[in-house]
Amino acid sequence: MLVMPIAALLDRWLSEPSRYHPLIGFGRLAARTEQAIYGPQQGVTANARRLRGAASVAILLLPALTLATLIENMPYLGALLSIAGLYLAVGGQSLSEHAISVQQALLAGQLDQGRLAIARMVSRDTQTLDAEQIAAATAESVLENGCDAVFGALFWYLLAGLPGVVVYRLANTLDAMWGYRNTRYRDFGWAAARLDDALNYIPARLTALSYALCGHTPAALRAWRAQGANWKSPNAGPVMAAGAGALQIELGGAASYHGELTQRPPLGFGRRAEVRDIERAIRLVQRALLLWLALSVFGGISLA
After folding, report:
1. What's 261's DSSP letter?
2. Domain range enclosing 34
3. Is the C-alpha dihedral spanning 215, 217, 219, 221 positive or negative?
4. What is the pLDDT of residue 25?
C-alpha cells in the first residue's frame, strides 16, 4: 500500500532522470522496429500497414510485459523494483517543471523564451502565440498530461501492478511516436493509438472526477457533461473540460497545427486563461494526486 506514496515522493524529490531514462531507450528501440517493419512507402495496402503496426506493438510490448511480471514476482526485490518502475512511469514533477518554466518566461516578459518553453510541451505551432495563448496552451497541457503522466500510471498499478504500469507507459510512448493521423502513421499507428485510447478510457474519467472533486465541482461536472464529448480525443476531452471547469476558466479555441488553423470547441466556463492559471492548473493536479494517494493508503489499511 506504500508503493504509490513512495514512488510519488521519489518523483517529487528527484523528478525524471536527466540521463538514461528507460523510455528514451525504448523510444530508440521503437524507432528501429518501425524502420524494420514499416515496409516500402508505396505498394502496401492500408490493412497490411495496420497489421505491420499491430505486429510492431506486440513485438515491443509482450517481452516487456513478461519481464515486468517476472520482476514483480521476485521475493523482496520485486517490491523495490516495483517502486522504481512506478517512479519512472510517473512524471508529475517533470510536468510541473516544464510548466513553471513557461510561467517564469511570461512573467519576465520574455515572450520568445515562453514560446520555446511551451513548444517542448505541445504539438501545435508556437511561433506566433501571444502571452494569453501560451498560458492557455500550458494549462491545457498540464491538465491533459495529468492523466497520461500521473493518474493513468497510478490506476494501472492499482489494477495490475508493475506489468500494468509498464504496458500502459510503453503504449503511451508508442502513441506519442506513431499516433498521428498523417500519411505515414494513419494506418501504421492505428493499433498504438487504439490501445492507448483503451488503456486511458477509465483513467481519463477518474482524472476528470478527481479534478472536479479538487476544484469547483459544479462547474467541472457541467463542463465535463456538456463539452467532454466534443473534443477530438475521447479521453482528453473529459479531462480537459473537467479541469477547465474546476479552475473556472475557458480553454480550447483556435490553434494552428503544422501550419493549418484548427477551430477547436471551447472547454470550461468563465474568463480566458491567464499566466497565473498555469500554477493553478499545477496545483489542481497536485491536489488530485494527494487525493489518490490518500485513498490508496486508506484503502490498503482497510483491507489489511
Report:
1. E
2. 3-303
3. positive
4. 94
